[in-house]
Write a structure and sequence with these properties.
Largest interface: A-B, 41 and 41 residues
Largest sheet of chain B: 5 strands, mixed
CATH architecture of the largest domain in chain B: 3-Layer(aba) Sandwich
Strand order of the largest sheet of chain A: 1-2
Number of strands of chain A: 2
Structural class of chain A: mainly alpha
Number of domains of chain B: 2
Strand content of chain A: under 5%
Oligomer: heterodimer
CATH architecture of chain A: Orthogonal Bundle
Largest sheet of chain A: 2 strands, antiparallel
CATH class of the largest domain in chain B: Alpha Beta
Number of helices of chain A: 14
CATH superfamily of chain A: MetI-like
CATH class of chain A: Mainly Alpha
Number of strands of chain B: 11
CATH superfamily of the largest domain in chain B: Periplasmic binding protein-like II
Strand order of the largest sheet of chain B: 2-1-3-11-6
Chain lengths: ~325, ~425
């Protein structure tokens, strides 16, 4: 009796007030995912959003990093100063040169190597690892390695001068703006090819073989198949690779800092080394922050433009 | 299942709250302050261990700090070693976050900048015995602590640059002893022309590098009050001195290391390898060469004298007390301890030069090579004490490099440098 009453009560309860129980369950279900998202969001807010807002705030002040209460409001003065500062423009142009000079070779060579490594062969995993190795190596290590290679008495000069006798005397690669930028760009390309290769390898796996076969049956040669079938099929990967490489190219820092430290006399400064100098050498955090904000806005605009242009190409080709 | 989901959600929420709380509380600072009955711990940051040098840290941690703690019961000193290259960055961010230690062994170039920003306690105000302590130290070293009429630290160790050469280089130039004057250097230059050996090498053209030349050449960087450079930095004497160096550069007797070639052989390698005949450098080089070039015997001598005599530049570190310190009295006791002969001589044994001229003889007895440096220190001068010292360095390096590269004349370069330094001295 007692049991049946209990059962009856248990069974009867949901039927007694169905609306309230269901809404309770729904509410519980709806809050749980957000609670799980909360740690991630908290980290994002603390580590990304909050510093970004702080940097923007600092950029509007003559910021005193030692005692923020002494900071003076300066409005857009720091931005005006940046636009009138020839060294800022020099560093921005160096970042731009690095970006252009490294992004295109990384895409072309990365895709080329991916095409070569797509075919099954016993040595293929070895080559994949070898090409990917620079990507996982520390920037600090490879920057110092390149610095020693292009030293006045480094291996490159030894090869060109002492071994091949192509130079009359040793070249001071790191003594001039352009030759030093060549070294920095070569490092960027060498270190980045493996990454774009990996993305393209994954993308190439997704190209349907039937499409290639159909094109082959229609009499398309290898180049035509690549241009008309493969390239459009991997366009999303190209969009992704180019957007990421442009962002990475404009954010170049470690290699420049370690190879030339912006020298000689600031001629190889890029935006981030110039920002670092302003912040940590001159303690001018307001000006450094305005440089950071300008770079962030520039990168954002470039990424949006790239996505627009490349996606439009995509849809035009499909229609 | 449901229970574990709920528990997981609770953990997630707790984690998020903790993260937000810790992330946002970084600026709240330390609230603990020692009372008279409670022992206090003072924190001390420095870069004694730079370059993997453990002897200085060992002397501090195993001998000196225990001796101080024994003499001052209730005070514990906690020393934290930070790599020199990241120390300024760490101090800057710690100052911003209100997390500075009580005491810092600061590079003397940083003191005016920290003083200007209110980070430091003016010791000349807070320590009644400051004058008597400072009077025992080299004037040039004490002067590095001056900012707007107050002294913000005491010299902890000192150094200067002297001329270093070696027998092989001298033999190549047909000389039996190190060049003692600008004229000797010129004679050496004539002999070394076309020999493949550079007469002199240095890494930049900042105040640390160029001041010994300017002062020995009879010139100055600014007026005595350090408020104006025009009329001083661009004087005829300085034009003449710098022109002498530029001429040597053009004749291939000074390598392009000086104009910022990051790929050129460094001075510490170029001298023992006989690429460079002379360099200016500090007392720390002895230890570096002993490890890397054991067969190399450096010869230390005074900076070659010009019309202004033989005048070098003061380097070293100062001990400073932060304004945020909760234990100023205990920290000042430790500052006094660092000025004593026990501390000074113990650090001499690890390669740090004493700031007290009265200890110079005992120092030379510990290692004779210190004598060249302590003799040079008698006339050595400190660089411009300005919060804008780093920017002044950039101005000097940039303008003078252009003169060396021939894109401008020495006179025009110094005129430009002087007017830019004027603005920086005025605080702009």
């Amino acid at each position: 009796m007692a049991l049946t009453t209990a059962l009856g009560r248990a069974a009867g309860k949901p039927t007694a007030r169905p609306g309230r129980a269901a809404s309770l369950r729904r509410r519980r279900i709806s809050t749980t995912p957000y609670l799980f998202l909360l740690p991630g969001i908290a980290v994002f807010v603390v580590a990304i959003i909050w510093p970004a807002i702080s940097a923007f705030q600092m950029s509007l002040y003559k910021w005193n990093v030692f005692n923020s209460a002494l900071s003076r409001w300066s409005g857009i003065d720091n931005y005006v100063r940046a636009f009138q500062d020839p060294h800022f423009w020099l560093s921005l142009s160096n970042s731009g040169i690095y970006m252009v000079a490294t992004v295109i070779p990384q895409i072309v060579l990365g895709l080329g190597i991916a095409l070569l490594l797509k075919r099954k062969s016993p040595s293929q995993p070895v080559f994949r690892v070898l090409f990917y190795l620079p990507v996982v190596t520390s920037w600090v290590v490879v920057s110092l390695l390149f610095k020693y290679l292009f030293d006045d008495s480094g291996l490159i000069n030894f090869t060109l001068h002492d071994f091949l006798h192509l130079e009359a005397s040793n070249t001071s690669w790191l003594a001039g703006r352009w030759s030093a930028l060549v070294v920095i760009c070569l490092l960027g390309i060498w270190k980045g090819i493996g990454w774009s290769m990996m993305i393209y390898l994954a993308a190439l796996q997704g190209v349907p073989e039937s499409l290639e076969e159909a094109a082959e049956m229609d009499g398309a040669n290898r180049w035509q198949r690549f241009r008309v079938v493969t390239l459009p099929a991997i366009n999303p990967a190209t969009v992704f690779v180019s957007v990421m490489l442009v962002i990475g190219g404009l954010n170049v820092f470690t290699s420049v800092q370690l190879i030339t430290d912006g020298g000689p006399i600031g001629q190889t400064d890029v935006v981030l080394t110039y920002m670092y100098t302003q912040a940590f050498k001159y303690s001018d955090f307001g000006y450094a922050s305005s440089i950071a904000v300008i770079l962030a806005v520039l990168v954002f605009i470039l990424a949006v433009v790239q996505l627009r242009v490349m996606r439009r190409d995509d849809t035009e080709e499909l229609s | 299942m449901k229970r574990s989901t709920t528990a997981g959600a609770a953990v997630a929420a707790a984690l998020a709250i903790t993260l937000l709380a810790t992330g946002c509380s970084s600026g709240s600072g330390d609230s603990g302050g020692g009372s008279a009955s409670k022992p206090v711990t003072i924190t001390f940051w420095g870069a004694y261990g730079n370059g993997g040098n453990s002897t200085q840290q060992d002397a501090l941690n195993k001998t000196l700090i225990p001796a101080f703690e024994k003499a001052n019961p209730g005070i514990t000193v906690k020393y934290t070693d930070i790599a020199y290259d990241s120390l300024l960055q760490k101090l800057t961010t710690s100052a911003a976050g209100g997390q500075l230690p009580d005491l810092v062994r600061a590079d003397l170039g940083w003191v005016p900048q920290f003083a200007q920003n209110g980070v430091l306690v003016p010791l000349s105000d807070s320590m009644p015995d400051y004058k008597s302590l400072a009077s025992k130290d080299y004037n040039g070293s004490v002067a590095t602590n001056l900012y707007q009429g107050k002294y913000y630290g005491l010299p902890l160790d000192t150094n200067t640059r002297v001329l270093i050469t070696d027998e092989a280089a001298l033999a190549k130039a047909g000389m039996t002893k190190a060049p003692a004057t600008f004229d000797d250097l010129q004679a050496m230059a004539d002999k070394l022309k076309g020999s493949g050996v550079s007469l002199f090498a240095d890494s930049k053209l900042e105040a640390w590098q160029i001041s010994p030349w300017i002062w020995s050449g009879g010139g100055v960087l600014t007026n005595a009050k350090e408020t104006k450079a025009t009329g001083y930095l661009n004087s005829a004497k300085n034009v003449k001195t710098i022109q002498m160096l530029v001429d040597w550069y053009n004749e291939g007797l000074i390598p392009n290391l000086i104009t910022g070639n990051a790929g050129a052989t460094g001075t510490s390698d170029g001298l023992p390898k006989s690429d460079y005949a002379t360099i200016f450098d500090g007392p720390w080089m002895a230890g570096i060469w002993a490890g890397q070039y054991p067969s190399f015997t450096p010869i230390y001598s005074q900076i070659p004298a010009g019309p202004g005599g033989s005048v070098s530049v003061v380097g070293g570190e100062d001990i400073v007390l932060t304004a945020s310190s909760k234990h100023q009295e205990a920290a000042e006791k430790f500052i006094r301890f660092t000025q004593g002969s026990a501390f000074q001589l113990a650090m001499v044994k690890t390669g740090q030069m004493t700031v007290r001229p009265a200890l110079a003889d005992q120092q030379a007895a510990i290692d004779p090579y210190f004598k060249a440096f302590s003799d040079q220190l008698k006339t050595a001068k400190s660089r411009i004490a300005s919060p804008n010292q780093s920017k002044i360095d950039t101005v000097l390096n940039t303008t003078l490099t252009q003169a060396f590269l021939g894109t401008t004349t020495v006179k025009a370069a110094l005129d430009s440098a002087a007017s830019q330094v004027d603005a920086l001295l005025a605080g702009n």
